[in-house]
């Protein structure tokens, strides 16, 4: 932990081997995912599949009704969604995509799940209570 004097000490030490010092040692910068308007205003088919009521109920992570309401408000052009709602929808899409890619697929036809040749088969987990997005 290097005395808490420097954040991400080990990562910076490793990065210094391959990156210029001005990059490896630069200050941290905030990363924020894009707002939902950038990919849900005219969603590609795989995004529509990921946030369909069937896919949302298959994973059980989110309240399908709340996601539908927020997506409908966006589609109707009812002004910009609030930042938290917009980021929340982005999180829904990202989580559904993660689930599809890493936990066995089945959420959209267009994207195949990732295959890991020597990985153990996924274990069915207990379904968590859905989270409201609104």
Describe this protein's structure:
Helix content is 46%, strand content 0%. The model has no long low-confidence stretch (mean pLDDT 79). It is globular, with a radius of gyration of 19 Å. It folds into 2 domains: 1-31, no CATH class; 32-134, no CATH class. It starts with 8 loop residues before the first helix and ends in a 32-residue tail after the last helix. It contains 7 helices and no strands. With 134 residues, it is mainly α.
In short:
The chain is mainly alpha-helical and 134 residues long.
Descriptors:
mainly alpha, 134 residues, single chain
Low-confidence stretches: none
* Sheet with the most strands, sense and barrel status: none
Question: Approximately what portion of the residues adopt beta-strand conformation?
Answer: under 5%
- Helices and strands: which structural class? mainly alpha
**C-alpha end-to-end distance:** 38 Å
> What is the tally of beta strands?
0
Number of helices: 7
Order of helices and strands: HHHHHHH
Shape descriptor: globular
The quaternary organization reads as single chain
What percentage of residues falls in helices of 4 or more residues?
40-55%
Total domain modules: 2
- From the alpha carbons, calculate the radius of gyration and give it in angstroms: 19 Å
Quote the average pLDDT. 79
